[in-house]
Amino acid sequence: MFWSLLLRLVARLISVYEHFLGLKNTGIWGKKEFIKRSLNMAYENVQYGYSMIAVLVIVLLLVVYFVKAQPVALYITAFIVLAVMLNFYKLKVTVDASSVSWEMGVGLINGSIAVNDIKEVTVVESRWVTGWGIRKINNGTLYNVSGFDAVNIALHDGSVIRLGTDKPAELKQAIQTVKSR
């Protein structure tokens, strides 16, 4: 019963958050139709980290199994896992006429780079050791919630932003199209 209530609470929190962002909800784990906030938006994709959510739920279940007698430790662990889950359950990437933006989870982790700062865009496959989440890589940072496909964005200053995506060719094409304008 506790787990059922916890999962419903997580689903409800995500729904409320997305409602305030102006998203039409077609199911908490289903596809979303996003209301375009500007006419110059070239690309938008949301990738959900189902694998990351599953791993976090398994971690929580293991903690519950091994820490049954200590309710305070259980509540603290549940809070930490819930916080991590809310910050890393999805990665939203947006390309518009002037920037490439990304937002993880509920939006506390985000970033943006100007299209003019982009030197080169390539499709890459991340190695399994780079994992999910936010990672330091050679000369830059990786943002990923699921899978190994990504787009490397090399900047003029020599740094690199690598954005994980389930549609790397489309993201690369959108950035190149906006950059060529």
Automatic annotation (TrEMBL):
<keyword id="KW-0472">Membrane</keyword>
<protein>
    <recommendedName>
        <fullName>DUF304 domain-containing protein</fullName>
    </recommendedName>
</protein>
<keyword id="KW-0812">Transmembrane</keyword>
<feature type="transmembrane region" description="Helical">
    <location>
        <begin position="46"/>
        <end position="66"/>
    </location>
</feature>
<keyword id="KW-1133">Transmembrane helix</keyword>
<feature type="transmembrane region" description="Helical">
    <location>
        <begin position="72"/>
        <end position="89"/>
    </location>
</feature>
